[in-house]
Sequence to fold (173 residues):
Amino acid sequence: MSYREIAPRTLGELGPVCHNIAASYVNVLRRDGSPSLLTEGTPVKLKLTSIYVDDQEKALRFYTDVLGFVPKADFSNDGYRWLTVGAPDNEDGIELQLALNSNPAAQTYQAAMFEQGQPAIMFYSDDLNADYERIKAAGGMFTMEPTDVTASSIATLNDTCGNLVQITQLKGW
Fold:
């Protein structure tokens, strides 16, 4: 099965608002073209991805109240907080960890990416213009309105926690 055959179905299962880019299976081949151990049996799947945030409470409000995700896990242990969100209609789907950025190297990276205008994460939308209006009405601060680019339309917004978020609608999918 090719990426093109599974991507529309997989992306559509991730939620009505935004879809994480990395939702498809990973195909791994050896240099000679034969399948590696990773493609034999159960395919490698993405279950969790992380984004560094400078304030977990503010991030939780943004990713739930503005983007429409729902809290999945929230617990603390010795000053460390594990906080994740996910799509509201996919209980067992991919979770996004809102990781507190207390690592100096990661803080430097996060700040540099933001200053360069590089999104830290990309989500998919089935209707970018409708999501743009909904997110804007919920208080989202866009740095780029929906814009047509090669094979897609994109919009970028500030998550108020040190990151830019890109939302993409693919053309022809």
